[in-house]
Amino acid sequence: KQEVTQIPAALSVPEGENLVLNCSFTDSAIYNLQWFRQDPGKGLTSLLLIQSSQREQTSGRLNASLDKSSGRSTLYIAASQPGDSATYLCAVRAGGTSYGKLTFGQGTILTVHP
Amino acid sequence: EPEVTQTPSHQVTQMGQEVILRCVPISNHLYFYWYRQILGQKVEFLVSFYNNEISEKSEIFDDQFSVERPDGSNFTLKIRSTKLEDSAMYFCASSFARANQPQHFGDGTRLSIL
To answer: Is B48's Cβ below 8 Å from some Cβ in A?
Structure first.
């Protein structure tokens, strides 16, 4: 059974810092990995999708890397801003005959203070 | 940008009552999903739906749950006889393809069972 773990559980940084969020998964037979942002009481906003054949994806100040064989992904946020404060979730999409089921980590709560 | 929309945003129901949660997926998407998030816990997969039938479901999705796409735009989740433990945020998601496209989530329906 796939298990997804995110560390740290919470992170508080001053504005302007570069930071790294970590995600690990137990079963490397995945199609892809998706990073989401969740604001309090809101839905999930997709940030980046990285396919199992890719090593990294970039969008603006965000960069996600994937090491499928070791079961790890990182989300790098450059020059953090207070507006980046949110919970960040990673989710892996099962391979094989699965119809797209996502398995989520518990999230990292990020606070960026001015 | 196209969005997944969910109604209502908050539903309060007495235990034992039936509830229907509604979703309008992104119009050209073909795969539809329901997830739930109990307060303080991970987002959990419930069911995926493609070509007018359930393609995958979790052990949570028992006989009390059903899904339907009654017309070309709506996608519904019905809980027949609600229990206290059904209290959660329910998210609808959709994607264009099964595996290599991101899933897009709605803002969720908060279901409170009294």
So the answer is: yes
